[in-house]
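agent> Task received from the user: take the single chain below, predict its 3D structure, and emit C-alpha cells. No templates, no multimer pairing.
agent> Plan: (1) validate residues, (2) run structure prediction, (3) serialize to C-alpha cells, (4) report one or two observations.
agent> Step 1 OK, no nonstandard residues flagged.
tool_call: predict_structure(input=
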Amino acid sequence: MDNRFEVAVSAGTMRSDSSAAVRFPHRWTPGGVTVEADFTGAHLLHLAAAGCVLNDIYREAESLGIDVSGVRVTAAGGFDTTTWQSTGIDYSVEVSSDASADKLAHLLEVVDQVAEIPQAIRAGASVRRASSC
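)
tool_result: status=success, residues=133
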C-alpha cells in the first residue's frame, strides 16, 4: 500500500495565512517561514527536503544577484506502509521575483544540484540507534 505525505514551506510574500501553519524565524526573510505539515516521520522527512530547498533558494539567489520576494516549496512522497520504504520524494517550487524566467530556471537548477538534504537522501544513509536509556 502506498500513501502520499505532503508538506509545504513558504517565506516572504508567499507565507501561508493558514491558522494551522507553524511559524519559524528565518535568517533570510524578516517575516519568517511558515510550515504546513502533519507531525509524522514521513512528513518530517519531506519537510527536511523542502526546508533545505527553500533555504538554498534564498542563499543561491543572493550569490547570483537575484532578488526574491517570496518562495513556496511543496514536497510529497509515498511510503509502502507495510515496509515504510520510501517510494521517493517530489518537490515543486514557486518563486516570486522580478527576475527573468531564464534566471529563475538557472537558480532552481543550481539549487537542485547543491541542496544538502536532497543530496543526502538521494545518496542514502544508514540510521542507527546510538544509545538506550
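agent> Step 4: summary for the user.
Residues 2-123 form a domain with the GMP Synthetase; Chain A, domain 3 fold (CATH 3.30.300.20).
agent> Done.
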